[in-house]
Amino acid sequence: MQKNACSVGLSLRKQRLTAIIxxxxxxxxxxxxxxxxxxxxxxxxxxxxxxxxAKGVPLPGVTVRYGITGGVTDNxxxxxxxxxxxxxxxxxxxxxxKTVTVGYRAGETLRVRLEESRESLEEVTVVAYGEQRRGQxxxxxxxxxxxxxxxxxxxxxLTLAKGQMxxxxxxxxxxxxxxxDVSIIVRGAxxxxxxxxxxxxxxIDGVIASDDASLxxxxxxxxxxxxxxxxxxxxxxxxxAAAIYGSxxxxxxxxxxxxxxxxxxxxxLSANVSHTFILQPLLxxxxxxxxxxxxxxxxxxxxxxxxxxxxxxxxxxPEGYALGKPYxxxxxxxxxxDMTVYQDSLNPFYNNSTDLMAYYLRxxxxxxxxxxxxxxxxxxxxxxxxxxxxxxxxxxxxGNRRFSAFSNLTFKPAHHLYGNxxxxxxYTDNNRSRKGVDAFNPAPTAYSTLPDFxxxxxxxxxxxxxxxxxxxxxxxxxxxxxxxxxxxxSFDLTYEIADGLALKSGVAVDYLQNNQNVFxxxxxxxxxxxxxxxxxxxxxxxxxxxxxxxxxxxxxxxxADLLLGFSVQQDEMNxxxxxxxxxxxxxxxxxxxxxxVYDAEARLDLKDYYSDYEKKTMVGLFGRLNYNYRExxxxxxxxxxxxxxxxGEDVRWGWFPSYFVGWTFTEEPFMQALKPWLNYGKxxxxxxxxxxxxxxxxxxxxxxxxGAPYLGHxxxxxxxxxxxxxxxxxxxxTTEYDAGLDLGLLDNRIGLTFDYYLKRTRGLLYNxxxxxxxxxxxxPWRNMYGIDNEGVELxxxxxxxFNYNIKKKDGLENKETWAPCDPRYIDQLIGGWMRAGKDMxxxxxxxxxxxxxxxxxxxxxxxxxxxxxxxxxxxxxxxEWHPVNVRIEGSDRLMTKEEIEAYLQNNNRTLTKRIWIPDxxxxxxxxxxxxxxxxxxxxxxxxxxxxxxxxxxxITALEAEGWVKSKNVxxxxxxxxxxxxEKIIPVLANALIxxxxxxxxxxxxxLMETLALAVSDNANHIAGAIRTKLIEEGDKPKAKLIIDETxxxxxxxxxxxxxxxxxxxxxxxxxxxxxxxxxxxxxxxxYENQ
Length: 1090
Prior knowledge:
Layout: H1 11-29, E1 45-52, E2 63-66, E3 69-72, E4 78-83, E5 87-93, E6 100-105, E7 109-113, E8 124-127, E9 130-133, E10 141-144, H2 157-161, E11 168-172, E12 182-186, E13 201-204, E14 207-208, E15 230-236, H3 239-242, E16 253-258, E17 268-278, H4 290-301, E18 307-309, E19 314-316, H5 340-343, H6 356-360, E20 364-377, E21 380-392, E22 399-414, E23 417-431, H7 466-476, E24 479-498, E25 501-520, E26 531-554, E27 558-581, E28 598-599, E29 604-605, E30 607-629, E31 633-644, E32 653-663, E33 678-692, E34 704-710, E35 713-718, E36 732-745, E37 750-766, E38 782-798, H8 826-831, E39 833-835, E40 843-845, E41 849-851, E42 855-856, E43 864-865, E44 868-869, H9 897-906, E45 927-928, E46 931-933, H10 935-938, E47 940-942, H11 952-960, E48 964-968, E49 971-975, H12 978-993, E50 1012-1015, H13 1019-1022, E51 1026-1031, E52 1038-1043, E53 1050-1053, H14 1070-1084
Parallel strand pairs: 1-7, 13-16
Antiparallel strand pairs: 1-4, 2-3, 2-5, 5-6, 8-9, 10-15, 11-12, 13-14, 15-16, 17-20, 18-19, 20-21, 21-22, 22-23, 23-24, 24-25, 25-26, 26-27, 27-30, 28-29, 30-31, 31-32, 32-33, 33-36, 34-35, 36-37, 37-38, 39-40, 41-46, 42-45, 43-44, 47-49, 48-49, 50-53, 51-52
């Protein structure tokens, strides 16, 4: 089909737009001096310094900013500037580190230490036409960690991104290697996919990727992209995030950036090679041979059809054999039917058990190799790489191979001038399962597809037989070659006009060419002749974009950034395809001959040819304004106006606005009490409109076909199916509402994102049949229907890290994880902490509670018998509570329970000269534990400079929450507010009094009862308050409890004590009285005035 349309004249409009842009630029640039900075005659001051990471390692490539001037650190992390002021402030920033601003003084060497940016809110997120910190993003944005995409045996990045983003669905039609048919659906399908492809907009390094799926033999735009070259992968899901792309963002937007180098960075070489074996897939359970025969015959016997019974006026199943009644398959209404394949079981031809799945499905393998070099020098940074991927598919005859090369170059040719040059080249060769599908055969034919695994009977002959060879020859002998070439390059320059004001202009080219050749030998062609077809499809996209950006901070609280832009995009698609039949031999897979275009005897066209060319142009004006107050309140507005040559003259232009508001409620003063666990919380709402241009560039102008010759002359006729001219065809528009909640929990280690969205798409293209025939056109296209998508999304991402130091012999050096050193956590306030982090001074806090080791109150009661000590505890009743791992030193293998027992018995010891007695079930003696509470440190944390227990940041946070400055015996300290103490003291007293002492031996566990307590404000008084005396009476010695009332401690004896010793004055309320006594003592202590 040859398509034609009237040309679209845009020269006058381009002149108008150029004038508009010039006026806009003038408005921003005229008030600014032509040369920013200091006049030459003004004196300058030298400033130099060193930038390192937290470990003291020098950092190259760190950006050092002073207003609009500055520089970068060299390979040794050093910098040297000449600045107009003797004193001032410099800002240091680097990817992966927190940005800091510090003061300087000329003549003094400045030392700056950058900390790694651990918090997700500090991460940079790539958005449309720029970058934002994660905490500043107010649209619905999903990202995939680039580390999850690296060094994986997958040809397509979309395969690796599956299941990692809420609301983003990846669909694959066939599972062929290479993932050509993988598509992305963002927040549900926006229409019925009648008028073309519904993928989102793909933007790679700022360049809109040409849509390979629009070509005759292409795939999705990311097929040729090497996943190892990717640095960021971002999906913009709502209108607030994507509306800046206006007419192309109705289905969402995928933004990808590739890896870059850094200024003054030593060359970094990385290489990896992997070969992955994929075992034969687990096939479904299936029956074959006689089992299939019996199942099929049984099914045929049970096959019956209903018939209409006139007498009862109802449909009925036949109750017996009768003419005209379908009793079963073999009766067949009395006509008879047979199924020789299953009935002739004695014939060897029908007595097999062939497994087609096992024949066609095979073990697969994939090879992935990459080499990349990144680095930089003064004023230049580079990143180059080569990649190779080769995959043999699980299905016999399928596979994918890709070669790729990329180069990213960043340079600074002059003061205030920056540039980027990017280049990407890829070659892919794809062997797919749908062989034989081309422009002349758009659907698979029986001559090129696989035999049906389910309906080809297993009783038929298998491999090695003529029948099986004929059955499989259709697939095996069909030859198809699919390869593609991808070239994407871009160049841009950015000039900093003034502080915060920059002008950027760039041009990009995206070129894709797909080549296909299909060959069928004459034995499998329905005409008995060889068949060869060839297709060359090309897509060229040229894009020019000009951006003006302005960022300003007023008074340290008001932050605003403005973006104005103008873009022109032109797409050209052309397709050449032809076919030929009747080569002289099956070895000739192409058509290297002229003429011979018709076989008169067979009345068959031997050659056919088709070519096509399409072109479309789009221009756009757009702007965006974002504002936030102290990163607490956010608001933004975007507006884009696009025009496309695809539409009619009167509906060519379209408006695409959006707005958003956001509130970071955790920055409010009343939320500070929740900061220990709720670190970040943000509410956001957005509404916006996006659009879509249908794929057919001449649909609105009407389409014509080549008609049959008339009197020997060629003719042109309308395309009668849907080619009627309709100048009213216009944009498909989507209005989207989004309400979201973002949370960061536990030091932002756990992130939670919740979104509710509503998408309303209107004006979707459809071509229903036209009533009557008076127009001649059967189904013209119209904007006539709409679809609503509504849903909720919940995404949870967590990062829980437990740090242990491991000895050389795989033992744990420390048994506790690093704590955040936060006394607002009660377990830390009571239990203490010790942190020796890699980038901070060691902070220690000793627990104000001290518990002595258990000891028996009398040797005999402790189970001592002459020269050996009986084991007093056994953990056999609760072995799962405290599992014990035992291994011989130098070995990683854990010993079994039987091996441990044999080892201990053979060596006549357990831990230290102890005998293993596994049958003991409970304690045989009475034990005592002394507990001391240091009230001076109980609710206080030390802040003195000699041994601080807190970081400066934590001290500031506690003071803001009402912790009182004071002094104790250890020096300056902070005291927990009284209201908070009074909540904790009763709980603490109850826990201490009712604490059940357990053995501290690693392999034992037994609960102990509290028989008596002594409470005093002097630890020396407690030691003699309770004693026992051995009474030698009869065969069973007893113990008598001795309470010294003059010792200075108050003693509480419980009722269970009488079951173990001879005692008096025990009380049922002993524990309750002791708890009240302890509570009163802790309440009465003056913590603020010690």
